[in-house]
Amino acid sequence: MIRRLFMLLLVSIIVVGGSASFRPVQSASSDPCKQDHAAWLTQVLGKMSTIKPGMTRWDVLHVFRAEEGAPRLFRTEGGPATGLRETFVSQDCPYFKIDVEFKPWSFDLHNQDVIVNVSKPYVQFAATN
Q1: Residue 74: is its pLDDT beyond 80?
Q2: ∠ at Cα 93 (92, 97), nearest 5°?
Q3: Is the pTM for the entire model greater than 0.85?
Q4: Is it the case that residue 88 has pLDDT exceeding 70?
Q5: Cβ-count burial 35-71 (b if 16+ within 10 Å, e if not)
């Protein structure tokens, strides 16, 4: 009886000690969560990089559809599109932004303003009112 308890104790120590020293090898490519985040980020940055000089404000606001069916890729930060230099916020994440400069097309049709310059996408906390 004592011998069986001793053997059980010995086996338990070996199992616990062996499992405590075992560490799985961690790899960035083996974590599905990291892969999902990387794929999502690639998709969002790809959408943002399609905005180019020569396009119109209308293109920024209406060319793309979000997955939910919303008719915009970006929304303006701080209100409606009225200025010649504006910050647009990704519909996918409110922290992803681009700055866009426009050449006015007409005073009545702001959506026809032509994009002159687009900044690289950047990350910034959402504006607070």
Answers
A1: no
A2: 105
A3: no
A4: yes
A5: eeeeeeeeebeebbeebeeeebbebbbeebeeeeeee
Reading the block at residue 107, the tokens are 């005073």
The answer to whether the CB of 105 falls within 8 A of the CB of 90 is: no
Strand 85-90 to 114-118 pairing: unpaired
91-122 residues labelled b (16+ CB within 10 A) or e (exposed): bbeeebbbebbbeeeeeeebeebebeebeebe
Q: Which amino acid is at 91?
A: Q
List the domain boundaries for the chain: 43-129
Count of other CB atoms within 10 angstroms of residue 86: 21
d(CA 106, CA 109): 5
